[in-house]
């Protein structure tokens, strides 16, 4: 296959690779690549450690109390518990868009221990990485791809974020459709035809550019596990996220409690004054009655002596 490019830097020949041509040659040469397993394991372990640290911290904050164990300050907090469940779902659930079948972190030997933390079986990791490195890509590399080597897939804009998955592309010689939806036709400065998915659909933001006629193929968009987690965390920590709303709710309740406490203090002060006044009045009444009693007793004693 003969290719022509306008510069010595070629970044659209192999997905994920850039070739920089530094000199000419009269003989053929082989271009190859391989994944550094040791470096890949270090990267995966760093990711697992970060997830475990977050999960341990959340578990300590939400732990149930007992006679011997003090409950966590966020015990039974609905929002934090939902974040814990979401982290579990994301790290153990399916990862779409890296082929026809969903991928799972467990395929690289990642296991969930009894305490909920994650660990890596290195023997499974090494063997699976040799068989299919796409699972590793699904953790770290968000990417567009296609089942056809003649159909280049990319984002139509820097903000493109379609729904991850595998979608069917069909071209009947006139109309191009992606997942049954007709695509918009365009051409670049060199006159090369490309197709854009409808911006209003879940597939909005996909650009397809065939290098030759492709009648049918699968188009894939996979969002890496790292990017999925980052997006969720950014959303949860945003000014309008669930944590900010929870803090606002707690702050409102605290203000209401302070107001209630202030009203209770006012009532206590009012009642205290009233009861002190009543006590003083009762003391006066008792003193008066004692005086009257003494007077009557003395008078009765006098009458008794006279009789």
* Largest sheet, spatial ordering of strands: 5-13-7-8-9
- The number of helical runs is 6
N-to-C span:
147 Å
- What kind of sheet is the major sheet? 5 strands, antiparallel
The Cα radius of gyration reads 38 Å
Task: Name the shape in a single word.
Answer: elongated
The percent of residues in helical segments reads 40-55%
Describe it for me?
The structure is a single chain. The protein has 307 residues and is an alpha+beta fold. Helices cover 44% and strands 17% of the residues. The protein has 6 helices and 13 strands. It has helices at 37-62, 78-92, 122-131, 134-140, 225-237, 242-306; strands at residues 9-10, 19-20, 110-112, 118-120, 143-146, 151-155, 165-171, 176-178, 181-182, 184-187, 193-196, 206-210, 216-222. The strands form 4 sheets. It has a 5-stranded antiparallel β-sheet, with no helix packed on it. A 4-stranded antiparallel β-sheet has the order 6-12-11-10, with no helix packed on it. A hairpin with a 2-residue loop joins strand 8 (176-178) and strand 9 (181-182). Helix 1 (37-62) runs antiparallel to helix 2 (78-92) and helix 2 packs antiparallel against helix 5. It starts with 8 loop residues before the first strand and ends with a helix. The model has no long low-confidence stretch (mean pLDDT 86).
């Amino acid at each position: 296959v003969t290719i022509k490019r306008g510069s010595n830097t070629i970044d659209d020949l192999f997905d994920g690779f850039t070739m920089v041509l530094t000199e000419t040659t009269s003989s053929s040469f082989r271009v190859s690549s391989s994944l550094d397993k040791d470096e890949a394991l270090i990267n995966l372990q760093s990711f697992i450690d970060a997830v475990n640290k977050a999960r341990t911290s959340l578990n300590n904050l939400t732990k149930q109390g007992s006679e011997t164990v003090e409950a966590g300050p966020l015990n039974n907090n609905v929002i934090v518990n939902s974040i814990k469940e979401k982290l579990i779902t994301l790290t153990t659930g399916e990862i779409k868009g890296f082929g026809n079948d969903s991928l799972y972190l467990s395929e690289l030997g990642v296991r969930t221990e009894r305490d909920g933390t994650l660990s890596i079986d290195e023997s499974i990791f090494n063997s699976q990485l040799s068989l299919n490195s796409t699972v590793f890509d699904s953790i770290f590399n968000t990417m567009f791809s296609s089942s056809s080597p003649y159909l280049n897939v990319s984002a139509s804009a820097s903000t493109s974020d379609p729904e991850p998955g595998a979608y069917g592309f069909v071209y009947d010689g006139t109309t191009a459709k992606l997942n049954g939806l007709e695509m918009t036709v365009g051409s670049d400065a060199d006159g090369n035809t490309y197709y854009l998915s409808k911006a209003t659909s879940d597939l909005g933001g996909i650009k397809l550019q065939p290098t030759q006629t492709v009648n049918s193929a699968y188009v894939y968009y996979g969002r890496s596990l790292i990017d999925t987690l980052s997006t969720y965390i950014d959303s949860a920590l945003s000014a309008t996220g669930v944590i900010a709303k929870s803090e606002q709710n707690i702050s409102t309740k605290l203000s209401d409690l302070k107001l209630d406490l202030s009203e209770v203090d006012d009532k206590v002060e009012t009642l205290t004054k009233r009861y002190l006044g009543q006590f003083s009045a009762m003391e006066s009444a008792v003193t008066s009655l004692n005086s009257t009693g003494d007077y009557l007793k003395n008078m009765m004693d006098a009458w008794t002596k006279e009789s």
